[in-house]
């Protein structure tokens, strides 16, 4: 092989390896466009069908502490919002042994009501509570569709 033939052979090899642009690029482009279209359609469908509203309507995060006092008659349990999101008192209820308590009395009642905006430091004093009672702080969404137990004693 002469130098000219070797040079010609190398040029053909370079052309074959580097100048052929009809490879995978169009296929990858089509796949990416289809993937973007599918993702965009899923996001739009989520909000059009109303699922986006349900995703954002989750229970708030709040912590409560409890202080039981059996030295008074009737016994009291002070429930204090210890941290987390502020809550509207209209969205909170207190259950004792599975029964919702109100300020109206009965076996249990509020000695002191929640403030209208229950934030860190806000408390309510429950009266008539016994040491072995089960107390639940329950949050309900404003439309009443969802509820969650935020804390238990």
Number of helices: 3
For this structure, the CATH topology of the largest domain is Immunoglobulin-like
The beta-strand count equals 10
Second rung of CATH, namely the architecture of the largest domain:
Sandwich
Task: Indicate the multimeric state.
Answer: single chain
Helix content: 25-40%
Structural class of the secondary elements?
alpha+beta
- Unreliable parts: none
The CATH top-level class label of the largest domain:
Mainly Beta
Q: What is the beta-strand fraction?
A: 25-35%
Q: Based on CA inertia axes, which overall geometry fits?
A: rod-shaped
Q: Please outline the major beta sheet.
A: 4 strands, antiparallel
Protein name: Archaeal Type IV pilin N-terminal domain-containing protein
Domain Archaeal Type IV pilin N-terminal: 22-99
InterPro entries: Flagellin/pilin_N_arc, Pilin_N_archaeal
Organism: Halorhabdus tiamatea SARL4B
Explain this structure to me?
InterPro entries: Flagellin/pilin_N_arc (IPR013373), Pilin_N_archaeal (IPR012859). This is Archaeal Type IV pilin N-terminal domain-containing protein. Keywords: Membrane, Transmembrane, Transmembrane helix. It comes from Halorhabdus tiamatea SARL4B. The chain crosses the membrane at residues 27-51. With 153 residues, the chain is of the alpha+beta class. It has two domains: 3-55; 62-152, Immunoglobulin-like. Helices cover 30% and strands 32% of the residues. The chain is built from three helices and ten strands. It has a four-stranded antiparallel beta sheet with strand order 1-2-8-6, with no helix packed on it. A four-stranded antiparallel beta sheet has the order 5-4-9-10, with no helix packed on it. A hairpin with a 6-residue loop joins strand 9 and strand 10 (147-152). The longest helix is centred in the N-terminal third of the chain and has 24 residues, at 25-48. It is rod-shaped and about 115 Å long.
């Amino acid at each position: 092989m002469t130098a000219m033939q070797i040079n010609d052979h190398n040029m053909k090899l370079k052309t074959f390896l580097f100048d052929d642009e009809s490879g995978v690029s169009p296929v990858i482009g089509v796949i990416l466009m289809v993937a973007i279209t599918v993702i965009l359609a899923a996001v739009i469908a989520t909000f059009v069908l109303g699922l986006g509203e349900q995703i954002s309507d989750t229970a708030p995060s709040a912590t409560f502490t409890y202080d039981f006092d059996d030295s008074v008659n009737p016994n009291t349990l002070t429930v204090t919002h210890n941290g987390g999101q502020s809550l509207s008192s209209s969205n909170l209820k207190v259950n004792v042994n599975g029964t919702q308590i109100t300020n109206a009395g009965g076996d249990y009642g509020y000695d002191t009501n929640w403030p209208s905006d229950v934030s860190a430091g806000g408390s309510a004093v429950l009266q008539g509570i016994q040491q072995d009672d089960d107390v639940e702080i329950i949050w309900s969404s404003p439309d009443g569709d969802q509820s969650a137990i935020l804390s238990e004693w």
